[in-house]
Amino acid sequence: MKILVIGGTYFLGRVFTIVASRENQELFLINRGTYTMNMPSVTEYHLDRHDIDSLKKLTPQEYDAVVDFCAYLPGDVKNLLQNISGKVKQYIYISTCDVYKRNIDGLKEESAELLDVCYPGEAGEYMYNKMLLEKEMRNTCQGLDIAYTSIRPGIIYGPFNYAPRESMFIQWIVTGQPLPYPVDADGQFQFAYVKDVARAILSAIGHKKAYNQAFNVCGNEIIDYKYFFEVLKRVSDRPFVLQEITTKQAIKQNIPLPFPLTKEETELYDGGKIKKELAFEYTSFEEGMEKTFQAFKNVFS
């Protein structure tokens, strides 16, 4: 299949490009050239997605899918699809589980209400724009007769993660630093192993059950800090010390704990639809963390 990837060199996009190339997909990448894949099986176009003239000058192709990892601002989807050279059969938008309305009881399914308010700060603006872009995707694709699919991952973790989340704890372990453990934290969260998300995208390409649908991609395991550290102990090949703190101390001391600390922050999702519709299976959190630990251990050693 011919797949056009927008932003395929950074974390999830990078992993997707690697996984897809190993499955002998014909890949074309549009990126700004900050990072490059340097893979002989991948055609790279170094340009900014907002450079409409350059988009129009690309060699026309008939793409089985466009996979878009870096649409962040309203207009990004519309401008891309209306100006890309060639024909697009399916557009796959990499969204987020954060597009849902907050404080909905239980596990949010794909039919749950979406955000209707923009919360203050960069994170709030990011989530709201993602929701707006999902609407823009539907309207644009319907107007251009393109099938569309929204992939909504939970907290993505794994090799190449640039965000200071699981890699931060692994770095502390490797460098012999104590790990802050919020003993009274009652927040819960769900993860999505980066290779699982890459496989989820591939499973949706050309699959009619994925047309004009959204899929949460997050493991069914509901994690808290206690279980997170238990798994870290099992997958780590060296001992480490936990420094017990309270959630109040973590907040007061501005300790960068990356996952929800309280029930009030907790938002949970149902990742079962993709399993049912696309015969998809998740990697267990322990297995994913073991692979992640080994990958980052070499980086921080």
Which descriptor suits the 3D outline?
globular
Number of continuous helical runs: 10
Largest sheet: 7 strands, parallel
Low-confidence stretches: none
Structural class: alpha/beta
What Rg do the Cα atoms give?
20 Å
- List SSEs in N-to-C order: EHEEHEEHEEHEEHEEHEHEHHH
Helical percent range?
25-40%
Average pLDDT, all residues = 94
Side-by-side strand order of the widest sheet: 3-2-1-5-7-8-12
Question: Would you count the extended β strands for me?
Answer: 13
Measured distance between first and last alpha carbons: 39 Å
How much beta, percentage-wise?
A: 15-25%
In a nutshell, what does this entry contain?
The chain has helices spanning 12-22, 52-57, 76-83, 121-144, 166-174, 194-204, 225-235, 247-252, 273-278, 285-300; strands spanning 2-6, 26-31, 42-46, 61-63, 65-68, 86-88, 90-94, 147-153, 155-157, 179-182, 191-193, 213-217, 242-245. With 301 residues, it is of the alpha/beta class.
Any overview of this molecule?
By secondary structure, the protein is of the alpha/beta class. It is 36% helix and 19% strand. It contains ten helices and 13 strands. It has a seven-stranded parallel β-sheet with strand order 3-2-1-5-7-8-12, with helices on both faces. A two-stranded parallel ribbon has the order 4-6. α4 (121-144) links the parallel β7 (90-94) and β8. α5 (166-174) packs across α10 (285-300) and α7 packs across α10 (285-300). It is globular. The mean pLDDT is 94.
